[in-house]
Amino acid sequence: MRKGIKAFFQGDSYSIGYLMSTIINMLAVATTVGITMQLKVTSFEGFMIYVILFTLLDTMVSLLIKRYYFQFVIQSFGLILALVGLILIFITEQLVPDVYFESVFGIIGFTVFFLVFRLLLIYTYEKTIGQKKGLK
Asked: Which residues pair with 100 in a beta bridge?
């Protein structure tokens, strides 16, 4: 069993783990945009930059939080990670000019749906990889 930082990434290397996180986030953002209609995307390049930048920020911040402040995550039942996700979605939206939200409630609704859907995608991915490796 892998421990430490490598346990966060689900691949054998950091690049595979980051690539899978980017693909999962891309699917989750695209689905959430289609269902909630809260995030307005004016170009495909803006969408790609948004997903890549969000994944990079999310990976770095999540590693730091899980490494140094994990007891607070446990005490808050993971609400700290949801709040960090909301802040990172907002920051990334401010950095990418081709992506914007219509309202504050749009950001909150988008974030809630996105985080739940991403969690389901990660669970499905891990379950699929576990069955391929013979781990049930």
From this structure: 40
What mean pLDDT do residues 73-93 have? Answer: 92
Per-residue exposure over 60-98, b if at least 16 CB sit within 10 Å of its own CB, e if not = ebbeeeeeeeeeebeeeeeebbeebbbebbeebbeebee
* Residue 136 vs residue 54, higher pLDDT: 54
> Which are the contacts of 48, defined by CB distance < 8 A and separation ≥ 6?
26
C-beta atoms surrounding 41 within 10 Å:
16
Q: Tell me how far apart the alpha carbons of residues 136 and 126 are, in angstroms, rounded to a whole number.
A: 11
Beta bridge partners of 41: 99
The span from the CA of 25 to the CA of 31, in Å, is 10
77 token code pair = 């039942």
Is the pTM above the cut of 0.70? Answer: yes
Q: pLDDT value at position 136?
A: 53
